[in-house]
């Protein structure tokens, strides 16, 4: 839906106690938890501040209980609550349902204690576990002894592994996944087997004590290996392999090395576009790049070629005169992501209180090295037509809801479904229902035009006899023309007598079939729109001529020549196809809710979608459609028939 006021409703609700605070905190987490990072705005930031005030009213355990009960998909909430108390941070991490990409971006920014909570999740991918290992968090699970290593201890291992609760394991467990490198004896199959062989397993009846003793035995052996490693370095033999070798990950060593020179971080792709904001002195105050410090504090309007950031003379002159910057050249010497030659476009800003100059908003686009051209600008003021069409369709959808409700209630009053109603109110309800139906019909036509012009919909292939359709529609519009004493001369194709399938409407002879490549329903609707505009705009006593022809250039097509009444012929093309809500329309052939121009524009879009064209040629309209592939020979042209309207 377009208007989502759920968050506004929650923020407007006052909190009068701990119960209300817990309820509102849960609502805020539920609403914010589904907001993607790219959609966050000031309203979401205000909701996060309200959540902080609610957290201050509750204890750590109460906040944790609320967070554990509301699963969410927001990395922002994880980062925010991870800065708080331990139980709150652990609950926020446990309730998150994030993809591996979000964890990879989030974990380096979390506090050290919060990273430890992440290691206990069971849905982490291998890249996330590798990252935690590189950051020194490698005690993911307390290892279980191998069944095949010592059959005598298989039963105690099961008992001890099931006895430790999650909370205690989180506080006491450390990594036990490294083989002992200090001995020359060949290593067992797994690290867990090595620990079991070196430290006898206590009886299963000791429960938690058995686990604690096994962990303490492992710690003592780790200290021995670290001492051996330091002794080897002092003797010049280098570190013991397995403790600090670059070929081992954090899960293979007890103390994994941080990713410095031997494990460089992957290079980020250089940005192709950067948005900047400067103050009145031309100093960059904000930059849409990570980290923004690469550009914040620089002076992009400096023309000194010796400066690390300098522009061309035209851009500096535009800054002095407080004018827009168009295709300015900016040279930046600095970090690799921003270094190079950029094209700058910007707009000056002026304070609303007094018009004081407040700086510039700039957009930088990188120059392509191969072609020497700059990246194509993204026009923020004119979004793509598809996006505009989608927004308009969504707006129409939102407008239909209240109008449908009004129409429904009016029909209930008119039908006395809620009880006896005076005739006066029933008449008013009937009028309201009719107006609502007309508005809904207008919305449908507007939506149809938007979809056709944005190519969101198309017509199914089909064939139609344009001669028969035109003859039938002219017969339907004749009563309106007769009431105004309008004479319409019609020239259609005459059908061979032996091929006549059904009589044509008077006063026309049976027209020759002329098949075009457009569905019959769509063609009839489009031709009727144009004829309705003509009938609604013609003046009494006018003389009009309509003809159906076959053309061969540039392709075989049927051309329907439609006359424009004098009231429309005097308009230019823009005014002819422009919507006019106040345009008068005949009651029997009303062209559209928005007037004649809108009806012609909609008909033109329909004909275009059907593969044809609707163009103006002086005081007439030319409707052209390609002939169908199976079109046979056309009969001789019929003599001109004049239909008198009165």
Describe the SSE topology:
Layout: H1 6-12, H2 18-32, H3 42-57, H4 60-68, H5 75-81, H6 86-95, H7 100-106, H8 112-118, H9 126-134, H10 154-163, H11 166-172, H12 191-198, H13 208-234, E1 273-278, E2 284-287, E3 309-311, H14 313-320, E4 325-332, E5 340-350, E6 357-366, H15 385-414, H16 423-453, E7 464-465, H17 466-483, E8 487-491, E9 515-516, H18 520-537, E10 543-551, E11 557-563, H19 566-569, H20 573-576, H21 596-609, E12 613-616, E13 620-626, E14 641-643
Parallel strand pairs: 8-10
Antiparallel strand pairs: 1-2, 1-6, 3-4, 4-5, 5-6, 7-9, 8-14, 10-11, 11-13, 12-13
Helix pairs in contact: 2-3, 2-4, 4-6, 6-8, 15-16, 16-21, 17-18, 18-21
Main pleated-sheet profile: 6 strands, antiparallel
User: Tally the helices: what do you get?
Assistant: 21
Radius of gyration, in Å, reads: 39 Å
Specify the helix fraction band. 40-55%
Q: Regarding CATH, which class of the largest domain?
A: Alpha Beta
When the domains are counted, the total is 5
Query: CATH topology of the largest domain, anyone?
Result: Heat Shock Protein 90
Determine the CATH superfamily of the largest domain: Histidine kinase-like ATPase, C-terminal domain
- Basic shape: elongated
Number of strands: 14
State the distance separating the first and last CA atoms.
54 Å
Strand content range:
5-15%
Q: Which class of secondary structure composition applies to the elements?
A: alpha+beta
- Which CATH architecture of the largest domain? 2-Layer Sandwich
Sequence stretches where pLDDT stays below 50 over 5 or more residues: 146-206, 239-262, 376-383, 495-507, 584-588, 632-641
Average residue-wise pLDDT: 75
């Amino acid at each position: 839906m377009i208007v989502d006021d759920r968050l506004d409703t929650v923020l407007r609700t006052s909190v009068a106690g701990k119960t209300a605070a817990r309820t509102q905190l849960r609502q805020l987490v539920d609403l914010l938890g589904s907001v993607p990072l790219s959609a966050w705005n000031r309203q979401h930031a205000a909701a996060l501040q309200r959540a902080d005030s609610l957290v201050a009213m509750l204890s750590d355990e109460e906040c944790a209980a609320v967070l554990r009960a509301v699963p969410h998909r927001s990395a922002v909430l994880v980062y925010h609550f991870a800065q708080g108390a331990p139980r709150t941070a652990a609950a926020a991490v446990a309730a998150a349902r994030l993809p591996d990409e979000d964890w990879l971006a989030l974990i380096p920014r979390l506090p050290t204690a919060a990273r430890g909570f992440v290691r206990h999740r069971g849905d982490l991918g291998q890249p996330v576990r590798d990252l935690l290992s590189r950051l020194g968090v490698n005690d993911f699970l307390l290892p279980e002894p191998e069944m095949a290593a010592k059959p005598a201890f298989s039963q105690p291992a099961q008992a001890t592994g099931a006895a430790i609760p999650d909370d205690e394991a989180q506080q006491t467990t450390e990594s036990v996944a490294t083989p002992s490198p200090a001995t020359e004896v060949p290593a067992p199959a797994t690290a867990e087997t090595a620990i079991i062989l070196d430290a006898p397993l206590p009886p299963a009846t000791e429960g938690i004590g058995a686990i604690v003793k096994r962990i303490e035995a492992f710690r003592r052996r780790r200290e021995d290996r670290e001492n051996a490693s330091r002794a080897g370095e002092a003797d010049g033999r280098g570190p013991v392999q397995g403790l600090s070798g670059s070929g081992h990950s954090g899960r293979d060593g007890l103390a994994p090395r941080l990713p410095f020179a031997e494990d460089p971080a992957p290079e980020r792709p250089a940005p192709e576009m950067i948005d900047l904001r400067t103050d009145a002195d031309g100093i960059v105050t904000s930059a849409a790049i990570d980290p923004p410090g690469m550009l914040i504090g620089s002076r992009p309007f400096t023309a000194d070629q010796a400066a690390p950031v300098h522009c061309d003379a035209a851009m500096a002159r535009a800054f002095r005169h407080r004018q827009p910057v168009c295709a300015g050249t900016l040279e930046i010497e600095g970090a690799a992501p921003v270094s190079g030659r950029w094209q700058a476009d910007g707009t000056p800003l002026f304070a609303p209180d007094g018009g004081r100059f407040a700086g510039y908003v700039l957009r930088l686009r990188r120059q392509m090295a191969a072609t020497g051209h700059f990246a194509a600008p993204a026009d923020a003021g004119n979004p793509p037509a598809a996006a505009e069409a989608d927004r308009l369709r969504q707006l129409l959808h939102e407008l239909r809801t209240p109008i449908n409700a009004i129409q429904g209630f009016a029909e209930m009053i008119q039908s006395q479904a809620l009880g006896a109603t005076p005739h006066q109110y029933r008449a008013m309800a009937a009028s309201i229902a009719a107006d609502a139906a007309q508005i809904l019909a207008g919305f449908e036509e507007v939506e149809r035009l938007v979809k056709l012009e944005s190519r969101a919909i198309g017509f199914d292939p089909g064939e139609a006899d344009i001669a028969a359709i035109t003859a039938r529609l002219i017969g339907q519009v004749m009563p309106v023309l007769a009431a105004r004493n309008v004479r319409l001369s019609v020239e259609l194709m005459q059908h061979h007598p032996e091929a006549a399938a059904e009589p044509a409407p008077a006063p026309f002879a049976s027209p020759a079939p002329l098949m075009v490549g457009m569905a019959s329903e769509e063609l009839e609707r489009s031709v009727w729109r144009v004829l309705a505009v003509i009938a609604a705009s013609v003046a009494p006593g006018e003389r009009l001529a309509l003809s159906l022809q076959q053309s061969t250039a540039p392709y075989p097509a049927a051309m329907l020549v439609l006359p424009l009444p004098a009231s429309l012929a005097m308009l230019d093309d823009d005014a002819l196809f422009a919507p006019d809500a106040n345009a008068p329309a005949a009651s029997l052939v009303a062209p559209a809710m928005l007037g004649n121009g809108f009806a012609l524009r909609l008909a033109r879009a329909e004909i275009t979608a059907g593969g044809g064209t609707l163009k103006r040629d002086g005081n007439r309209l030319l409707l052209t459609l390609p002939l169908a592939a199976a079109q046979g020979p056309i009969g001789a042209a019929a003599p001109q028939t004049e239909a008198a309207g009165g």
